[in-house]
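A quick word before the example. In earlier lectures we treated sequence and structure as two separate objects. From today on, think of them as two lines of the same record. Here is Homing endonuclease LAGLIDADG domain-containing protein written that way.
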Amino acid sequence: MKHLILIILIQFSFICFGQESIENNGEMCRLLNEMINNDQLYRSGEILGGSFGTENNSSKKEIDSVWSLQIKIDNRNTEKLIELTKKYGWISDERIDCPKLNIWLIFRHSQKKYFPEILELITKEHEAKRLNDFHYRLIKNHLEGRPKM
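And the structure line, produced from the sequence above:
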């Protein structure tokens, strides 16, 4: 019985203490909200708004230019979220008391070059119960080419 308790305590310490604690929830909330706002910067704008830029009078060149800008933002956001997740584990709304965070959108809008690293991270975070089933499935669906769920 003592061995079982010791094993459970060791596993618990790896799960809980494998990541650093977030020292300033308010600052983390602000940073992540800024990332989400940037994620939607051009997607919700005049040129890309609607059905991904197809229902407007913008030229293909304009649409491609704006997508190029959005992809640069997506890459920065993805790299930052990978860094934060490695350091702190998955950062949920509840964990930092930051309502309607929707940080999963960052990985949902990531580029293929990040897919292997994201899959490894989300699998680890899902198994550790820090990433819920729904968000795990949404991100994984993107990594698999977005087949119908």
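Notice the following. The chain is about 60% helix and 0% strand. We will return to this example when we discuss secondary structure assignment.
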